[in-house]
UniProtKB/TrEMBL annotation:
Highest classification ranks of the organism: Eukaryota, Fungi, Dikarya, Ascomycota, Saccharomycotina
Protein name, as recorded: DEKNAAC101543
Superkingdom of the organism of origin: Eukaryota
Stored SUPFAM superfamilies: Clavaminate synthase-like
InterPro entries associated with the record: AlphaKG_dependent_hydroxylases, TauD-like_sf, TauD/TfdA-like
Species whose genome carries this gene: Brettanomyces naardenensis
Keywords associated with the record: Oxidoreductase
PANTHER family: GAMMA-BUTYROBETAINE HYDROXYLASE-RELATED (PTHR10696), TAUD_TFDA-LIKE DOMAIN-CONTAINING PROTEIN (PTHR10696:SF21)
TauD/TfdA-like domain boundaries: 33-360
Residue ranges of the region described as Disordered: 141-161
Length: 388
């Protein structure tokens, strides 16, 4: 009988665990053989336990048909005891492909998207993400960033070839690296929390306004008045995103204050450790380079209103880039990500690449607590004096 066999990729190593771990089929198999295998594996808890240990799983099952990918994901999701997560408050344009698969972020292929844990700045976030590649015909060319930096702005790194990789960062590794580099920042973020302010426009031409289906327009009907639209959106905003919101009286744009814990405690069997769980790299890069997806974030600070220094924000962004595992796609790949432990982004590309996404949640999940083991660093400074 066919089984899953480890594929030798080049992963990172984090606390003696490979990140990610990749599998392909041990031999030729029909679609129904693969379905039976995935059902048995998921029901015995294989994907749940491998995901906890490794943070991300690559499945190279060889079939890029979106309908088949969708079936495989549904079998794994349901067999693992999860339910589809309803996307509410999306800031990116999405198109529904199957009942559980949408296109991933549809912004321009030239745009680099930096690290974020999906919906981590909201009240509700999925536990698992499935990315699936249905088409991959990209042109291999050099960097594209060079000294001009990502998205045409000044940036010190020249990146890997821009072939649309999905960069993943393990939140434990990022947390540990920041604790080494800037321990006071860990203390400050833990104690003071994070504030981000986001704007959803009333009217846009790219389907990312607040009335869009994947934002807050799920119940809005054609012909609804502006007041009716607001009344339908408001409970969704409060429940899924934040209770702190208001409408701009002149533009009817939606302005949301998001109050979150950007560092959390991950409970992993007998072990518990700190993980980075936020969207700081994505949204700080958007503000820094002035060219991020849809430019919705307009402020980042501690939750008490205090400024997070540029030095700290740059350190988070740069460190997240240093720790990337860049997944190079093959058609038919499914990448399963533990959204609590691992953040993701997107590299630019030229050509055709279709990566679909499905979000899943664990019913009655435990609260994802903030990191509270705060250390006092008496007399210690994180940054050179001139930038503190
Ligand atoms: Fe995302």
């Amino acid at each position: 009988m066919v089984d899953l066999k480890i594929v030798p990729i080049t992963p990172r190593r984090i606390h003696n665990h490979t990140f990610p771990v990749a599998y392909h089929l041990s031999g030729p198999a029909s679609q129904s053989d693969v379905e039976q295998l995935l059902k048995a594996k998921s029901e015995e808890g294989f994907f749940n336990s491998v995901l906890k240990e490794h943070g991300a799983i690559v499945l190279r099952l060889g079939n890029p048909d979106p309908a088949v990918l969708s079936t495989y994901i549904k079998i794994i999701g349901k067999g693992s005891g999860d339910s589809p997560f309803q996307q509410i408050g999306s800031t990116a344009q999405r198109t529904q492909i199957t009942d559980i698969l949408t296109n991933a972020n549809e912004s321009s292929p030239e745009l680099e998207i930096f690290q974020h844990n999906e919906f981590s700045r909201f009240n509700r976030y999925p536990t698992k993400l499935y990315f699936a590649c249905s088409k991959y015909e990209v042109t291999k060319s050099d960097g594209g960033e060079g000294k001009d930096g990502p998205n045409g702005a000044d940036h010190p790194h020249s990146s890997v070839q821009t072939i649309g990789q999905t960069p993943l960062v393990h939140g434990r590794e990022l947390f540990d690296a920041l604790q080494q580099k800037v321990p006071l920042l860990i203390t400050e973020l833990s104690k003071r929390g994070l504030y981000m302010e986001q704007v959803w426009k009333y009217e846009t031409d790219d389907h990312t306004g607040w009335t869009d289906k994947y934002s807050f327009g799920r119940d809005i009907l054609e012909g609804d008045s502006l007041e009716q639209k607001k009344k339908k959106a408001e409970p969704l905003i409060a429940e899924y995103v934040s209770k702190d919101f208001h409408w701009d009286p002149s533009t009817n744009d939606l302005i949301v204050g998001e109050h979150t814990q950007p560092l959390r405690t991950y409970e992993n069997e007998s072990e518990s450790y700190g993980v980075s769980f936020n969207s700081i790299p994505t949204f700080y890069a958007g503000m820094k380079y002035k060219k991020n997806s849809y430019g919705k974030t307009r402020s980042i600070s501690y939750d008490d209103g205090g400024e997070i220094s540029e030095y700290y924000l740059d350190t988070i962004l740069e460190t997240s880039r240093e720790l990337e595992y860049n997944h190079e796609w093959e058609e038919g790949d499914i990448v399963i990500v533990d959204n609590y432990q691992v953040s993701h982004g997107r590299k630019p590309w030229k050509g055709v690449k279709k990566v679909l996404v499905s979000m899943w949640d664990k019913p009655s999940k435990a609260k994802f607590e903030g990191w509270t083991k705060v250390v006092q660093y008496l007399g210690m400074r994180d940054a050179p004096l001139d930038v503190c």
